[in-house]
Amino acid sequence: MKRFKSGVMVNQGYYKAFVPEHLNRYWQLDDMDVLRLLSMADRQLGRLDMYSEYVNIDLFIRMHIAKEATQSSRIEGTQTKMQEAFMQKEDILPELRNDWQEVQNYIAAMNEAVKELHNLPFSNRLIRQAHRLLLQGVRGEQKLPGEFRRSQNWIGGATLNDAAFVPPPHNYVGDLMSDLEKFANDESNPMPDLLKIALIHYQFETIHPFLDGNGRVGRLIITLYLVSKGILKRPILYLSDFFERHRQLYYDNLTLVRTNNDISQWFKFFLSGVLETAKQGIQTFDGIMQLQQGMDALLKPMGSRGKDARKVINQLYGQPVTDVVQVAAIIGKSNVSAYKLIADLEKIDILKEITGGQRDRIYVFDQYVNLFQFK
């Protein structure tokens, strides 16, 4: 690691672009701080994976993918709130619908990619498929969705001349992404998987292989890799929240690798993110179990209506935003009965009205959604 060289600047006439070194080569770990953090992160990931056996993991995953989608998109400037991800498009203000659709695309891309891991290895094909879904029907849909770029791009600045960073020219992209895929799947390479995915994420963001959506795809592939290697049985770790809260440090540490060959600092930052996020995931699991256990005491005073209330709450764990029509359908009764039940659930702070209107009101299972917000 002390001899690590990140890459070289190549002259392209009126600008220079950065071409990273290949990843698929021999690596020697010689930083004890990195190894200590790696051991701690591995332990916390093991605990997180174990906790996943004690709650309805599919509901947890759905909530976390929604959180990941909103946080990952927020880094790119999208402003959809987590509860809005569960609302219908017609309930979203017209000026916010494009942002809402980007979040829905991220959810779809993650779900489809995880499903495809049963048929495909972690690969460029999988990455391109996720990218195609990500840009479907939103800004960037004209920028070659599902295809690696065929022209130069840049990060920051209005033009190539004042860009903060210029990734490799397009004719390098195919070779660099092929090397990335080989590195990801080279079982003979002794590099620990958590450090492998740290390198893969850095390399992907440096190559910037697409004309748009590189940040979102780069964060999505972290989870995909961990699942593909069996480190996690299910997709329950997402780093976008950590990257969003430490956005400047995230960019600074990526830049330090390219400018100062400082791969150790990037490893430390990435592993700190895994460690902190895994701990937060464990706290969320604990919170869900405590919330579920406390429901009986909350519903007991409702008497016979408690049965209907339980039906609604069970649905809310997977779909934490609802309205009177949905509640009526769940309990199989009239809208009038649904309104009365909603009023009861509001009184005990299970439902919270979020639209502020007199008609077409929308309610959120606030205590539950708050468990997924970083403390």
Structural features:
mainly alpha, Arc Repressor Mutant, subunit A, globular, 14 helices, 56% helix, 375 residues, 2 domains, three-stranded antiparallel β-sheet
The helix-strand sequence is EEHHHHHHHHHHHEHHEEH
- DSSP strand count: 5
The helix content is 55-70%
CATH top level assignment of the largest domain? Mainly Alpha
Instruction: Characterize the biggest β-sheet.
Output: 3 strands, antiparallel
What is the residue-mean pLDDT, rounded to a whole number?
89
User: How many domains make up the 3D coordinates?
Assistant: 2
Uncertain ranges: none
Classification by helices and strands: mainly alpha
Which strand order do you get reading across the main beta sheet? 3-5-4
Output the CATH topology of the largest domain: Fic-like fold
Secondary structure tally, helices: 14
Account of the 3D structure:
The chain has 375 residues and is mainly alpha-helical. It folds into two domains: 7-283, Fido-like domain (Fic-like fold, Orthogonal Bundle), CATH 1.10.3290.10; 303-370, Arc Repressor Mutant, subunit A (Orthogonal Bundle). The chain has helices at 32-51, 57-75, 97-116, 124-134, 170-185, 193-207, 214-228, 240-245, 247-260, 263-299, 305-316, 324-331, 335-347, 366-370; strands at residues 7-11, 16-20, 321-322, 352-353, 363-364. A three-stranded antiparallel sheet has the order 3-5-4. A two-stranded antiparallel sheet has the order 1-2. A hairpin with a 4-residue loop joins strand 1 and strand 2 (16-20). It is globular and about 75 Å long. The two termini are 35 Å apart. The model has no long low-confidence stretch (mean pLDDT 89).
